[in-house]
Amino acid sequence: MPAAMDRLRSRLDALLRRPDWVFVLLTLWLGLESFALGPFSYMQLNEFGDNPFPYWQVITSGLLGSGSHYWLPSVACGVDRLANSLMYPQALAFLMWLLPGWAAYQAFLFIHYFFGGYFTCRLCTDDLKTSARAGILAGFAVAYFNAFTGGIGNSIFPFALWAFERLLDAGWRRGILGAALLGLFFSMFSSAVACLPFCFAWAFLWFSVVRRRFSARFLALCATLGLFAVGMHLQEMIAMWLNAQFSHRAQWGTVWACSAADLGRALAQGLRWTWSNCNVPAAVGLLGLAASRFRPGRFAGVFALFLFTVVASGTGEWVKTCLGLASGTLSGLHLHRFFLILPLAGGLVGAAGIELLPGRRWVFPLAMALLFGQTLQSKSKALWEYFFQGGYTSNYRSPVLSALARQRSSSEPFRVATFTHGLLPGYATSYGLESVDGYVNNYPRAYFNLWRKVIEPVMRREPYLEDYFGRWGNEIYLFLHSVDDWPAGIRFTDHYRLHLLSLANTRYIISRHPLEDPSLRLLAPQPSWRSMPRKERIWLRIKELFTGKRYFFIYENTSAFPRAFLVRGVKTLPDEEALWAAMADATLDDLKEAVYVEASRWRSGTLSRAYRKGRVAISGYRTDRLDLEVFLDGPAVLVVSNSLNPYWRCLVDGKERAIVPAYGAFWGVVMGPGDRNVTFSYSPPYRLF
């Protein structure tokens, strides 16, 4: 027995001397549920499967047509694509062009785990001169704790730090060229607002305080890297800035006050994030610091940078309030994004902690065991979600949603909505369906106000939504806390305003639970979920993992408005509040008879002798352009239920005409009896081609 233990220990020691293989194995373990079954594997849904994956899937699939598009019609009645970080070149998009969707996801996931873990280990062993064990603990912690969202810049960040150190020791020509290439590479994985500014600030402190490499050469290479990294995002950043002023984010504000009490709350928030983002390595680091009697020696800079990261994570929003940036254009910019670097800062502190605990060989296996225990807990949650929500094939290869998508028509476009119990709106988007809902980072405040009225009945009964949607609002969902009280079917208008969804051209509603309303016609009857035997329900879920979801209640909304339509009358309201109150109380007939407008936004007076006969035909429908033919025998308002954006232009028979806010959130154009050809085109100021 002792001989067998010695052989096992010897083999483990040999493996630990090969960190590249260690992190290949750890990567396969961390992504096991997403790798094991190929296209039938688990896919992370929250923060990825509903955004950005479905949006990139529809963009890279060619469903939006040929050419470069600046408008994304697939979500929330249309949004600016670049203002939502859907820019080129982007690593996920590149992989989705090369590979099937499931394989692109797995490749992206492998890069996320391996780069974050392996190059953190190299930072420890090569630059901090720690032992391999210390580096492996740090790398494992970073690979596990790093957030996996649409951009994985924070996972590539350790590689960028490690590679930049090598460039500082290279010749000038090689250093400048390498910094430029490294900036381009890093930018492909990074968000311009959630990653780059925070990583750049942290890297400056890393090289100045920890590595002590501050010099003219350092500044020159930093400037080169930053120029190429930021330059790739410049068009995106301009789009964000231009759209921010009328975005739903502009009304976020903050819950913080610039006071000592709130500073204490902010610091406590930083400590909570530290616990959730790097608990094991941070605990090891603190043990090592205590063992050194708070004299960490050569690791003093590592501990100082860790403390800065904790404090900056917690106090970012508090500082924003104190700087007067909590309202207006910059209010939606989160200044606490340093918390995304906490896994790296904590991992490096953990490596230092092991080095400060000499002779205590139990620390490394115990810390690794605790990390493995947390991965097991995460995998149990993932498997639970996999069974109930499904994986890649079940959600993105559904024959039912594919059949619904085949009904798309450029001459008669329509939108869908998703009842979000067991479903996410992004699933429909990935099939090329245009939706009124979705997970959206940047969309017009006017559409936020419209959706608030759509879900107002349920918000009144479920107060948590006032904070969750009212203060945040990125998830434009048909929320409902539970369906358990309505096993036979949800009375739709008890919870949502269907007439506002109808106005937005919502022709179909997708659900996994029965809905009830006279305007909703069920297309394919299904047995009630609760009436099915338990074994049959379990077997159905398992089968859907491999064949795609088939159990749906697809409803046709018989009261849906067309995408473009004519209105005879105008109802002016004194202000925004009155407008939305009137919209909430209106009936379908009211909305058909008069377009609701704010008095301050309407300059055309009343419509005298409104038309008796009129119709609209869509003659051309493209992502950034809409062509209509209008036939009228009198004045009218032409309404298009696309989301408001000031960079859309309208030409009527070749002459520009103003677009006014119709029904608060859509396009309105005043038409006369001689008007015929109408062209809408999207031309934002940042457009290059």
How many beta-strand runs?
22
What order do the strands of the largest sheet run in, or round the barrel if closed?
Answer: 4-3-8-11-10
Mean pLDDT: 92
Q: What's the story with the biggest beta sheet? A: 5 strands, mixed
Number of helices: 27
Radius of gyration: 28 Å
Shape assignment: globular
Uncertain residue ranges: none
Share of residues in strands: 5-15%
| Helical fraction | 40-55%
Overall number of domains: 3
Q: What is the structural class?
A: alpha+beta
Gap from first CA to last CA: 72 Å
Report on this model:
With 689 residues, the protein is α+β, with helices and mostly antiparallel strands. It folds into three domains: 15-387, no CATH class; 397-557, no CATH class; 564-682, Immunoglobulin-like (Sandwich), CATH 2.60.40. It has 27 helices and 22 strands. The chain has a five-stranded mixed beta sheet with strand order 4-3-8-11-10. Strands 15-16-22-18-19 form a five-stranded antiparallel beta sheet, with no helix packed on it. The longest helix has 32 residues, at 260-291.
List keywords for this structure.
five-stranded mixed sheet; alpha+beta; 22 strands; 689 residues; Immunoglobulin-like
Short description:
With 689 residues, this protein is an alpha+beta fold. Helix 20 links the parallel strand 3 and strand 4.
Q: What is the strand and helix layout of this fold?
A:
Elements: H1 2-16, H2 19-30, H3 32-35, H4 45-49, H5 53-60, E1 71-72, E2 79-80, H6 91-98, H7 101-127, H8 132-145, H9 153-168, H10 172-189, H11 196-210, H12 216-231, H13 234-244, H14 260-291, H15 300-322, H16 342-355, H17 363-389, H18 392-396, H19 399-405, E3 415-418, H20 425-430, E4 434-435, E5 438-439, H21 445-454, H22 456-461, H23 464-468, E6 475-476, E7 490-491, H24 498-503, E8 506-511, E9 515-516, E10 520-522, H25 534-547, E11 553-557, E12 564-567, E13 569-573, H26 576-585, H27 588-593, E14 594-598, E15 614-622, E16 625-632, E17 636-640, E18 648-652, E19 655-656, E20 660-662, E21 666-671, E22 677-682
Parallel strand pairs: 3-4, 3-8, 7-9, 13-14
Antiparallel strand pairs: 1-2, 5-6, 8-11, 10-11, 12-17, 15-16, 16-22, 17-21, 18-19, 18-22, 20-21
